[in-house]
Write a structure and sequence with these properties.
Elements lengths: L2 H29 L6 H8 L3 H7 L3 H5 L3 H13 L7 H16 L5 H9 L1 H23 L8 H20 L3 H18 L9
Helix pairs in contact: 1-2, 5-6, 5-8, 6-9, 6-10, 7-8, 8-9, 9-10
Length: 198
Amino acid sequence: MTVQQSGRRERKKAATRQKIADTALRLFLERGYDAVGIRDVAAEADVAVTTLFSHFASKEALVFEQDEDFEHRLTRAVTDRAPNEPLIPALRREVLALVRHCTADSAAPIWRMIDASPALRKYDETVRLCHAEALAAAIAADPALTRSETVARTLARFVIDAYSLSRESLDPEAALDEIFPMIEAAWAAARPSHHTHI
């Protein structure tokens, strides 16, 4: 297969995935999450149920279609930061951008739907833990950061919680201004000591 054919196939796959996700979200918001089944989404998007499941592992995953992008953005805040750029400000900048995106007026109906559904809330919690693990792995893998795996995992959980807490706040930016100095202090407190043993 040529590179061109492969590229075309990937674009077609991505377009199908997006079409399914957009259709699902529209139906969920119009009729209510619980009132719409997988078959309804597949029929409306004009795809087979098996095609839908080849793109999304579950009904809940249809709502969180951009999760992968969310995770990549967080890990790139670690891996793509400038040489010598401190970690915490880089993470705060990315979390702020993500919170702004998620608290835009257009996102409000989606979050209301998630908050009203026990299944979606549970899925959101599971996904947040996965994001925290991915972020922790990126932090632990950076030789310049010299922290233990436990510290990396703790910090990652703090950052994911900071995102959630600020997203739910009436003033997300003010919430981040309160939360991130605590994260900064915890990160500084976990700096390895370089005591020499005589």
